[in-house]
Amino acid sequence: MKHTLTKSTLIGILWTGISQFSTQIFRFIVNVILARLLYPEEFGIVGLAAIFLGFISTINELGLSAAIIQRKKLDETHLSTSFWASLGMGTMLCIISILVSPFIADFFQEKLVRWLIVVISVGLILGPLSVVQRTLLEKILNFKKITIAEICDTLVSGLISIFLAMNGYGVWSLVYGGLSGSFISVFILWGLSSWRPSLKFSFAHFKELFGFGSHVMGSRVLNYIDSNTDYLVIGKLLGTSALGYYTLAYNLITFPLSKISLLVTRVTFPAFSIIQDDNKTLQKGYLKVVRYISLITFPMLAGMFVVAPEFVVVIYGSKWMPIILPLQVLCLAGVLKSVGTTVGSILLSKGRADIQFKWNILTAIVLTIAVIIGANYGIVGVAAAVTIVESFLFLIIQKITNKLIDLSMYNYLKAIYPAIIGSIALIIGVEIYQRIMVIYHVHDIGMLISSSSVGIIIYLLFIRLLFKNLFDEMKSLLHEMRK
């Protein structure tokens, strides 16, 4: 049983990986096209509206999806109550957002922000319409169907955004594209899930779920504040252009975080909840998850660090050159966050959402102070402040999480050791290669392609020669998934 559960979890991660690999390749292409069609200020203006609406959306479903996954005994009344509670909250938040939009625009001194908030607020109603369907699929680890919905969402939103940007819609191309994708996702999830809401609603059942979900919701709100304090400070103190530059840099380093690590956590939380009382099995599963995440994210960010100058100029154009240094500084923060994000799956599966909530309060305070100080030195200063704070906090919360499942820090570091060594080898090898090629005055695009190729080859050879068992294990999982 233990073996099957671990294998099911990792197969779920592979399905998530397929979704993210395909969607993110497409999203990356879309973002490159949009970055060349739009200006940093336009990305910054949308970013200002997104700061507020992203905060509101963390309250939207009240943490009920996590409660559904964590709870062992559920009935139809639990599910329908969750649906109507989420939809009611989404509708109320949409109305509130529209009413306060003028004040948000005044705060940022940007009139267009008001109308962006009004339109984007529609998404607060769309999200709850499929939250239970998605959660039920996650609970039974059916990530294949979720993958279909995510790919369709990405394709629709990306193509519409590009079409509108090419026809002069500016910031609205990002807004309408995103809403279109959300609508398609709801439509598909309803088609792929057999569950339908009834007219049942019970305050007693809501109270049962919200008892756990309230801590999750609180943690998500505080985590959102942690993750967006830098955006808020830059938008307020440094302006929309600076925010546009910083947003692109941060999105690049958090690609492995938000699109791999967070979705792996989405797979592992329901799986770990099943074995929440078995620390030995939890240790084994958790270490595998951390090991595989690090093997993917560490070299990605190490490669980004070393080829950042050529990457930015070739892919996004010279107008985006101010993001190079903050991008490199943020790479270390991205490395730590990519594996640090997984602590949530342990805390929630063990029913300790209270620890996550309290931790996020501390993080919000410390990070806010650091970012305000860093803003005195521009976006590079903010990037440095975020990286320093993330490094310090990572060690503390990881130690707390490890203690819950009786895991030593030595065994944790042993799990990510192959990725650390391989990434260091990648950086050293590419640096040596680039210093040699400078003599021949290689063009930026040639340097980018060749350096990336050299980095991939060095990393794969290093891992293959020193850690052959990892390749064999992945091969077995891929074979199981194919069956």
Notable characteristics:
globular, disordered N terminus
What is the tally of beta strands? 0
Shape: globular
Q: What percent of residues adopt helix (DSSP H or I)?
A: over 70%
From N to C, what is the helix and strand string? Answer: HHHHHHHHHHHHHHHHHHHH
Poorly predicted regions: 1-5
Lay out the secondary structure.
Blueprint: H1 2-37, H2 40-60, H3 64-70, H4 76-108, H5 112-120, H6 123-126, H7 131-139, H8 143-166, H9 171-192, H10 203-237, H11 240-253, H12 255-274, H13 279-316, H14 324-340, H15 343-349, H16 353-374, H17 378-404, H18 409-438, H19 444-466, H20 468-482
Helix pairs in contact: 1-8, 1-12, 1-13, 1-20, 2-4, 2-5, 2-10, 2-11, 3-7, 3-10, 4-5, 4-10, 8-9, 10-11, 10-16, 11-14, 12-13, 12-14, 12-15, 13-14, 13-18, 13-19, 14-17, 16-17, 18-19, 19-20
